[in-house]
Amino acid sequence: KMGSGGKRSFFSIITVLLLLYFITIVISFKPQNNNSNNHEKFNAKRANGGGFGCVACVLIINLVQQYSELHQSSTDKAMKELCTFLPYNYENYCDDFVDIFGGLIVDYLAHDYTPDQVCEGLNFCTDPTCVLFPPRTSPRSKSSNIVPPTIQISSEKLQFLLSQILPISESYLSHTTKHLNQRQISQDAPWEYLPISDNDNDRFSTFPTGRGSHWRGKDCDDSNPFIYPGLQSPHPSLNLSSDYNCNGISGINPITKLSYKSTFCGPETKPLGTIILGASAQAHFEIPPQWITAKLVNSTTYKNLPSALEDELDWPQRSWGTGYQANTSWVNSLYLYLRNRNHCNHRDFQNLGVNGASSNLLVNNVLDIARNQKTDNPALFIYATIGDDVCNPDHSLDRMTTVEQFKKNVLNVTRYLDTVLPNNSHVLYMGLVDGRILWNQMANRIHPIGGNRTYAEIYSWLSCLRVNPCWGWLNVNETIRNETSKRAEELSNVFGEIVKEEGKNFKHFDMAYVPFPLKEVIEMGRKRGIKAEELIEPVDGFHPSQIGNGLIAEYMWGWLEKNYEGWLGPVNKNNDLIRKMFGDQGGY
User: Fold this and answer.
1) Packing angle between helix 75-84 and helix 51-70, nearest 10 degrees?
2) 293-302 long-range contacts, Cβ below 8 Å, gap at least 24?
């Protein structure tokens, strides 16, 4: 973890990650008679058509091309204008890269090359069979046998870029080497997903991004490890009147001489935190459509780009589990429902969602929970992978998690929870989704990328590049889609087995299982005039959209009220007084 310099350092890390790939591409551009091994080694690493680098290149070139045509401007002018839309830290690098690659891009597009062909020419895409946009038939079009251009790395501009970026990258590599997580439960998950900025090491932060207060309740004193969200009673070193658990309630009643916190939030109110463990669907992964849609791009489009990257393109502050931005359309969450039921629950939430995390990785990720069994409030803990145990980019059903391994993983997590969750906590397992809805609802629809590309064509292109987020479900082959759903159902059944077989074996919590409410959420939307496809994130065509997140939260809360209302605690009769005295309780 970093101290007070974490904010700046994390921003630099994200920038370096984005730029190192491009720098390596440039370094790889050598005259064809050069015998250096660098080019061969790099190409070996970029098998399968260029992977995500190819995807990024095609999306960017397509955006440049469409923006240029839409505004009837030259390609060069379009690139430079798009650079001005980026935040300052990115704009400068964008300008530099346009200086290096711009002339080549202008030349390619002037000869009616498609974005795929341009990116093949720039050596970002390496497999000419993986094509999103069909070749044009214009007389200006050249042969599709594109020869990568020769760029001399001795150019003054490139040397300047390298001199600026390489020291940052060396610092980044040094940092990550020192902070690799040495936990040995799984060799596949070496990272800790904890706040980057956390001066007192209590796993809570005052800074929003970088696993900070967007992910966990905001720390109200980052210099004191005994002050953090979820604490049940104050440390002996603290005054009883202090806001030791950061729920915005503090002070002493001058008449009763009792603290307002003990008066409004006593044991009888049964405060309860919200903790969710899962993957990208729980972290609310989303790529805003306006980022890649030329007609929507303007000077404000990318203003949130730095914070989005620092949050791994996740928006946990708007997720169905721990979202809190109630002023944003369709933001409901289990945390907000609990907080509205009892204002003493303010800020007591943790989102442990990690993009791409299957149950194999959750065995490690659960260790990032911040809960003290002796001093903290109980929590509602939700275990929800939804799809990552059956989803991967590899063209094989054999990569799906087996039933045996899945059960082992879930039990390992649950047993660990019994060592950290306080008494009277609750564990809720959520089943996997039947992801066949993705192909059925989206395949023939037009993707916002433009060019009349359908989702089916996007899915197939990603599969060709081996970066399809779920080859099993986002697949033209119905048999493969069905087999993927069959395994998802088998894994979901494991949760019910564990509740039945092991439910009484844990000391600190009770347990329940809820199937993923796909049909129910679709029906809830239909009654409000919302189409099924609107529940799916439009850019990747895979994750729940903001509307989908809101409806999932609404259904889950209703399900809990109906089946496990005793878990939720009473409605706090002091809520009106808390609002009157403490307003928004410090916000978020």
Assistant:
1) 110
2) 293/448, 293/449, 293/450, 294/63, 294/66, 294/67, 294/69, 294/70, 294/450, 295/66, 295/70, 297/63, 297/67, 297/82, 297/85, 298/85, 299/84, 299/85, 300/85, 301/85, 302/85, 302/86, 302/87, 302/90
Average pLDDT for 67-92: 92
| pLDDT value, residue 240 | 87
Strands 349-353 and 509-514: what pairing? unpaired
Q: What is the pLDDT of residue 95?
A: 86
SS3 259: strand
Rounded to whole angstroms, how far apart are CA atoms 411 and 406?
A: 9
Task: Output the CA torsion sign for 45, 48, 50, 52.
Answer: negative
Tell whether the model's pLDDT for residue 6 goes beyond 80.
no
With cut-offs at 50, 70 and 90, classify the pLDDT of residue 411: very high
Tokens read off for 48: 């399968």
d(CA 486, CA 159): 54
Which residues does 132 contact at the CB level (< 8 Å), separation at least 6?
Answer: 58, 115, 116, 453, 457, 458, 461
Sign of CA dihedral 43, 48, 51, 53: positive
Token pair 């099993």 is at which residue? 472
What is the helix (H) or strand (E) element at residue 56, kind and residue range?
helix 51-70
Determine how many CB atoms are found less than 10 A away from the CB of residue 170: 11
Dihedral sign from CA coordinates of 95, 97, 100, 105: negative
Phi, psi of 285 (to 5 degrees): -65, 135
Residue 310 has pLDDT above 60, yes or no: yes
The DSSP symbol for 135 reads: P
Looking at per-residue pLDDT, the higher value among 99 and 324 belongs to 324
Mean of the pLDDT values across residues 468-481? Answer: 97
Active site members: 280
pLDDT digits (tens, 9 = 90+) for 440-453: 999 999 999 988 99
Q: In which region does residue 531 sit, left (phi positive, over 0), alpha (psi from -120 to 50) or beta (all else)?
A: beta
Per-residue pLDDT, 160? 55
Cα angle: 576, vertex 581, 583; to 5 degrees: 80
The pTM (predicted TM-score) of the whole model is 0.87
**In angstroms, rounded to a whole number, what is the distance separating the alpha carbons of residues 109 and 270?**
64
- The amino acid present at 123, given as its one-letter code, is N
Phi, psi dihedrals of residue 210, rounded to the nearest 5°: 65, 45
